[in-house]
């Protein structure tokens, strides 16, 4: 009786605390990486959900049961999410990609049937009488769990036959897993584009400049019939269709150094869509994304704290030292489409016809290029390094004649030279610190490019000369093979740059679970 008298009031107090306590967010960040692609022997990192130090109050490592048919949703508050996204967790994924997984070939596992989906534990809301009712979001999350399971199984299976393309080779961390993930994306992934806003700031962007990928992606997703859905209840992600380049052109007051008008415009837009639709508030932006190839993309995302900390930011300026988080953000390839397409830019001679060891030509801006020019400008016949090309010499012809193309960062980490090198069959040499190359969650950049730290610039020639002819030929062939993933097509083609960007967003959405809290 004494125990009963003590326990009953305690239960009542806890009940009142749970009802009157602070509101929590309706999403959970599964991991700082992609555990659904790891081997069953590997251990995944824990998420700190308390705001305390990492030494206590942690969730156990995610395992197959958590991500499989018995998976359940954990609700965490925003302070916990911010702790889990602390700067200490950031890594330069160009050297440690999130999808580093074992390659194995075993018989294909049978995929779950429709009956499996019906038996899955899914996100739900409670009826007044205590019964569970499956929501549209619950069905979406259940199907995403099936996709995770299929991808996890594919890394040990046999690839599916495909008439267009079958990923294969060391350019991929795991070709089987990538193919299955891509096919799952084609089968399931849906994007809702908010219709609010008017051009030129919204639903519009540049298509013939160094920022052309911004406008290209906005246009292609808006006219796409396969991935775009007009029904927001069927969407996995929600696109905020503003163009940072257009905001800089039409809202920013030149030479004012005042980001206020840009921030206010984006803040107003988020307020409009969050007031009209329930989706932003439901996940605090975790299933929303923006794209930006302008250098001010990261600064623009600061307009709303949830946009920066929770949303998927697709950025050309993928700099981990400035807050780029490879586990939730996407590295956007910077492509300078001077004429609006790639006609005349693709292709180059075989390795034996490339007589120049390395080439660079470009203006002096940022901290890295002055160092490169100081050591190598016009000082070595093997390393053709110029600030300005001599008259009558073609920039692209020089790239086609070179074995390696130097791609130093400018003011920001991204450079269009990376994709230009791939287009011309020249092995890119990434000279940068803190840069995450595009699609590095799928592509093993070390197999077809050279990474050089800024401190190693004085030793650049020795580094390149140490690469054997045999190894160079392998790298050059791999550059040609991965080129399809960077090609711009209109309309888009399977596995091209548009689909690879979508696939990167798809992977980040798989890394988050959202649920209703009604």
TrEMBL record:
<keyword id="KW-0333">Golgi apparatus</keyword>
<feature type="signal peptide">
    <location>
        <begin position="1"/>
        <end position="25"/>
    </location>
</feature>
<dbReference type="Pfam" id="PF03016">
    <property type="entry name" value="Exostosin_GT47"/>
</dbReference>
<keyword id="KW-0735">Signal-anchor</keyword>
<dbReference type="InterPro" id="IPR004263">
    <property type="entry name" value="Exostosin"/>
</dbReference>
<protein>
    <submittedName>
        <fullName>Putative glycosyltransferase</fullName>
    </submittedName>
</protein>
<keyword id="KW-0808">Transferase</keyword>
<feature type="domain" description="Exostosin GT47">
    <location>
        <begin position="185"/>
        <end position="467"/>
    </location>
</feature>
<dbReference type="GO" id="GO:0000139">
    <property type="term" value="C:Golgi membrane"/>
</dbReference>
<keyword id="KW-0732">Signal</keyword>
<keyword id="KW-0328">Glycosyltransferase</keyword>
<keyword id="KW-0812">Transmembrane</keyword>
<dbReference type="GO" id="GO:0016757">
    <property type="term" value="F:glycosyltransferase activity"/>
</dbReference>
<comment type="similarity">
    <text>Belongs to the glycosyltransferase 47 family.</text>
</comment>
<dbReference type="InterPro" id="IPR040911">
    <property type="entry name" value="Exostosin_GT47"/>
</dbReference>
């Amino acid at each position: 009786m004494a125990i009963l008298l003590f326990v009953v009031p305690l239960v009542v107090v806890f009940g009142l605390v749970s009802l009157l306590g602070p509101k929590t967010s309706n999403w959970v960040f599964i991991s700082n990486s992609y555990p659904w692609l790891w081997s069953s022997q590997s251990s995944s990192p824990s998420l700190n959900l308390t705001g305390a130090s990492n030494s206590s109050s942690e969730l156990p490592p995610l395992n197959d049961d958590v991500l499989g048919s018995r998976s359940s949703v954990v609700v965490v508050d925003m302070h916990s999410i911010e702790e889990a996204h602390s700067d200490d967790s950031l890594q330069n994924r160009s050297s440690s990609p999130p999808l580093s997984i074992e390659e194995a070939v075993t018989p294909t596992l049978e995929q779950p049937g429709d009956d499996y989906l019906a038996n899955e534990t899914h996100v739900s809301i409670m009826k007044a009488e205590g019964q569970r009712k499956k929501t549209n979001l619950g069905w979406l999350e259940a199907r995403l769990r099936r996709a995770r399971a299929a991808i996890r199984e594919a890394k040990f299976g046999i690839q599916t036959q495909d008439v267009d393309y079958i990923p294969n080779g060391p350019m991929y961390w795991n070709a089987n897993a990538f193919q299955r993930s891509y096919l799952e994306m084609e089968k399931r992934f849906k994007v809702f584009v908010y219709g609010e806003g008017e051009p030129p700031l919204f639903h519009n962007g540049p298509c013939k400049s160094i920022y052309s990928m911004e406008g290209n992606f906005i246009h292609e997703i808006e006219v796409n019939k396969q991935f775009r859905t007009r029904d927001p209840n069927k969407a996995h992600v929600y696109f905020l269709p503003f163009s940072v380049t257009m905001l800089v052109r039409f809202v920013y007051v030149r030479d004012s150094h005042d980001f206020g008008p840009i921030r206010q415009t984006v803040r107003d837009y988020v307020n409009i869509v969050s007031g009209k639709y329930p989706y932003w508030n439901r996940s605090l932006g975790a299933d929303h994304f923006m794209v930006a190839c302008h250098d001010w993309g990261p600064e623009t995302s600061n307009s709303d704290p949830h946009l920066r900390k929770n949303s998927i930011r697709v950025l050309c300026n993928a700099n981990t030292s400035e807050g780029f988080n490879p586990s939730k953000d996407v590295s956007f390839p910077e492509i300078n489409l001077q004429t609006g397409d790639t006609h005349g830019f693709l292709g180059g001679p075989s390795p034996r016809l490339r007589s120049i060891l390395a080439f660079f030509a470009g203006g002096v801006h940022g901290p890295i290029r002055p160092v490169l020019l100081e050591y190598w400008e016009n000082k070595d016949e093997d390393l053709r390094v110029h600030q300005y090309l001599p008259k009558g010499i073609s920039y692209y012809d020089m790239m086609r004649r070179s074995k390696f193309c130097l791609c130093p960062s400018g003011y920001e980490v991204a450079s269009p030279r990376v994709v230009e090198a791939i287009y011309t069959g020249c092995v890119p040499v990434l000279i940068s610190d803190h840069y995450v190359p595009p699609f590095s969650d799928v592509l093993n950049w070390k197999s077809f490019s050279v990474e050089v730290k800024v401190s190693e610039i004085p030793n650049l020639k020795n580094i390149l000369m140490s690469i054997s002819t045999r190894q160079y030929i392998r790298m050059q062939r791999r550059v040609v093979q991965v080129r399809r993933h960077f090609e711009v097509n209109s309309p888009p083609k399977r596995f091209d740059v548009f689909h690879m960007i979508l696939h990167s967003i798809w992977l980040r959405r798989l890394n988050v679970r959202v649920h209703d809290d009604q």
